[in-house]
Amino acid sequence: xxxxxxxxxxxxxxxxxxxxxxxxxxxxxxxxxxxxxxxxxxxxxxxxxxxxxxxxxxxxxxxxxxxxxxxxxxxxxxxxxxxxxxxxxxxxxxxxxxxxxxxxxxxxxxxxxxxxxxxxxxxxxxxxxxxxxxxxxxxxxxxxxxxxxxxxxxxxxxxxxxxxxxxxxxxxxxxxxxxxxxxxxxxxxxxxxxxxxxxxxxxxxxxxxxxxxx
Length: 214
Description:
This protein is mainly alpha-helical.
């Protein structure tokens, strides 16, 4: 079977992907440390303060995370065809058909993959849910970061309740991202083995491969 190269992901989408992924790694590591430091709060014989350093890294990573979420929001509305929300949510008959086909394919009860240049609708739903959870995570984070801000406190109290309740939710969402990352990495490797669309390489060069129509 012959394949043709097609441009799938813009530079901004690829920058979003890697800034989102790397910021989550930094946030998870520093967040776990801040929640339960595994070293002395001050290193003996040294003026360094590791908790403060970890908090600083956490805040920098949080702003990178926020920027990546805003970039993806922009692409959901103004991105290229396959980056827009309408392309991968099951809101059209073609997308509903693709969703059912994708479920069968990944469950080993269907035939060949119903390849799209963009996300299949099963992945699209997972990514959109993750985007919403990411938005909740950044709001809860800024709620805790700015207790003196009337605006953030208004949002935070309405959405999460007290600061302590927000902290519990914030910590639980981290585990969602950890499990999502494990499943995501497994699925993209599995997809690259089962299909020839170049899913992994596409997040570096933006190019995917689609069977050429004869």
